[in-house]
Amino acid sequence: MIKKAPLHKFSWNRVALLLSLLLVACGEGKPAPTDSLAVAPLAISDPNAITIPSGTLLLQDDFTHAAGGWEIFEESQAGAAYRDGEYQLRLKQTPRRAWGLVHAVTTPGDVTLSVAGRLVSGATSGGYGLLCRFTDAEHYYFFLVSGEGEFIIGKQHNGTSTGLSASVFQPSESILSGKVPNLLTAQCVGDHLILSVNGVPIADVVDEEYREGQVGVLAAAVEGLGMEARFDDFAIYAP
Q1: Topology annotation, domain 8-29+51-238
Q2: I want to staple 165 with a disulfide (CB 3.0 to 4.6 A). Which of 110, 183, 203, 211 is the partner?
Q3: CA separation for the pair 12, 109 (Å, rounded)
Q4: What Å distances lie between residue 6 and 96, 129, 130, 156, CA to CA?
Q5: β-strand partners of 155
Q6: d(CA 181, CA 197)
Q7: Is residue 162 within 8 Å of 172, Cβ to Cβ?
Q8: DSSP-assigned beta bridge partners for residue 216
Q9: Which residues have a Cβ under 8 Å from the Cβ of 182 and sit 6 or more positions away?
Q10: With contact defined as beta carbons under 8 Å apart, do 232 and 64 qualify?
Q11: In 3-state terms, what secondary structure has residue 5?
Q12: For residue 6, what is the DSSP state?
C-alpha cells in the first residue's frame, strides 16, 4: 500500500532564515497545467565534469514505469504522480512543501543520491531537491535549489527548519536558473552532507544528529499560485 506523503505548513523567510519552513498556509491556489510540457535538455557547461558516483548502485529509476515504489497521492493541497516519464510534485497552495519517498529498496544510512530536477511552473523562488535520513515529517536533511540559482542544505527538527550551509539561500554559478533542469547530487555519508550541482560540489557541511532513514525528493513553494517540480533519472548509491 502506497502511503501519502504528509504535508506541513511553513513560513520561509528568505531574508532572515529558512527557520520555519512552510509553517503558515495561504489561500487556495490553482493547479499548474501538466500536459504537453516541453522538456528542456539538461544543459551542462562541461559534460566531462560529470562523474558517476562511486559505490554500489542500489536503485536507478527513470520513471518510465509507474511501479517504481514511489509515493503517489492527490489531495486538495498537493499531489505526487508519475507524469510523462518523470516524477511530479505539484503544490496547489503556498506556502507549502511536499515530498515523495521511495520504498522500492531499504536505504542504508550512508548514501549518495542523484537526480535531474526542474521547476515546471510557479515562482522562481520555489525550491526542489533531495532529502535523506527521513524518519518522519519532523526529522530529515534536505538539499534544495531554486529557480533563482540559489541553494541550501538544511535539516528539519521538531517543526523547525535550520539552514546548515548558511542561514539563508546562497547563489551559485553552477545552478542553472529558471525552468532549466539541474543535475543534483547529495551525499549523506557519516556526518558529512555534500551538495553538488551539474558536477560541481557547492557545499559541504557537518551534522551528526541523524544517522539513518528514507530518501526521496522534495518541493517547496513560497509564493504565487503554487508550483510544480519534476524529477528524472533518480539513483541511489551506497558508498
Answers
A1: Jelly Rolls (2.60.120)
A2: 203
A3: 28
A4: 11, 17, 16, 14
A5: 141, 162
A6: 10
A7: no
A8: 101, 131
A9: 42, 116, 117, 118, 145, 175, 176, 197, 198
A10: no
A11: coil
A12: P
Domain ranges, ordered by start, for the chain: 8-29+51-238
* pTM, two decimal places: 0.80
Q: What percentage of the chain has pLDDT greater than the value 70?
A: 78
Q: Which residue's entry shows cell 504528509?
A: 6
What percent helix, strand, coil does the chain show, rounded to 5? 0, 55, 45
How large is the greatest C-alpha to C-alpha distance in the chain, in angstroms?
Answer: 45
Per-residue CA distances from 37 to 86, 91, 134, 142, 235 (Å): 11, 17, 31, 27, 24
Residue 15 CA to residue 211 CA, distance in Å, equals 30
- CA-based nearest residue to 230, from 24, 29, 30, 32: 32
Residue 177's contacts (CB-CB under 8 Å, 6 or more residues apart) are 124, 147, 148, 149
Instruction: Please give the C-alpha separations between residue 3 and each of 11, 69, 97, 145, in angstroms, as whole numbers.
Output: 25, 10, 17, 26
CA neighbor of 119 nearest in space, from 145, 142, 84: 145
Rounded to the nearest integer, the mean pLDDT of the chain is 82
Query: Cα–Cα distances in Å, from 202 out to 40, 42, 90, 133?
Result: 23, 18, 27, 20
Q: What is the pLDDT of residue 11?
A: 33
Asked if residue 63 has pLDDT above 50, the reply is yes
List Cα–Cα distances, 178 to 65, 97, 125, in angstroms: 28, 19, 9
Task: Identify which of 149, 158, 143, 155 has the alpha carbon closest to the alpha carbon of residue 219.
Answer: 143
Per-residue pLDDT tens for 6-21? Answer: 333 333 333 233 333 3
Q: What is the DSSP letter of 53?
A: P
